[in-house]
Amino acid sequence: MKRYKIPNEVLYGIKELDDQHQELVDTVRSLDAHVGSDDIATIEKIFDHLEKLMIKHFSDEESIMKETEFPDVAAHSVHHKKLLEEARQIFSIAVSRGTLSEHDINESIDKILRHLLLADAPFNTHLRQTQHV
Ligand SMILES: [Fe+2]
Ligand SMILES: [Fe+2]
Question: What spacing in Å lies between the alpha carbon of 80 and ligand 2's midpoint?
Fold first, then answer.
């Protein structure tokens, strides 16, 4: 599968966070190679890695939001917690079914991409307006 590159207009201009976004997308898309697989141990490894990346990224992003006085950090943090919970749910559904379906993968990719492209956008605007980047 062709690598999905985070579009330039979505980049924060903060390398650490931009690299984390790219790694999140790459990781969630690496699930694609496991459609229909019942190799739950391998799938679990990817979800474990994804979970770690999400926790680290959300924490780093929220820290920078606080540092730069982004006004919607509390609501954004709720969004992050929900996203993490949804990723865990998708994984547990795959485990109980015994295989990873295309629907699980599309749903995971969709949720993560949508967050990066839409929910993170107001923070990107904030960084620019307050000339933090
Ligand atoms: Fe983000
Ligand atoms: Fe975010």
Answer: 6
- Alpha carbons within 13 angstroms on the beta-carbon side of residue 52 total 7
Nearest alpha-carbon partner for 25 in 2, 42, 9: 2
Confidence of residue 109 (pLDDT cuts 50, 70, 90): confident
Using the mean position of ligand 1's atoms as its centre, give its distance from the Cα of residue 34 in Å.
25
- Residue 104: the pLDDT is 87
C-alpha 92 – ligand 2 centre gap (Å): 23
Taking the domain 14-129, which CATH number applies? 1.20.120.50
Q: So where are the chain's domains?
A: 14-129
Q: What is the pTM of this model?
A: 0.93
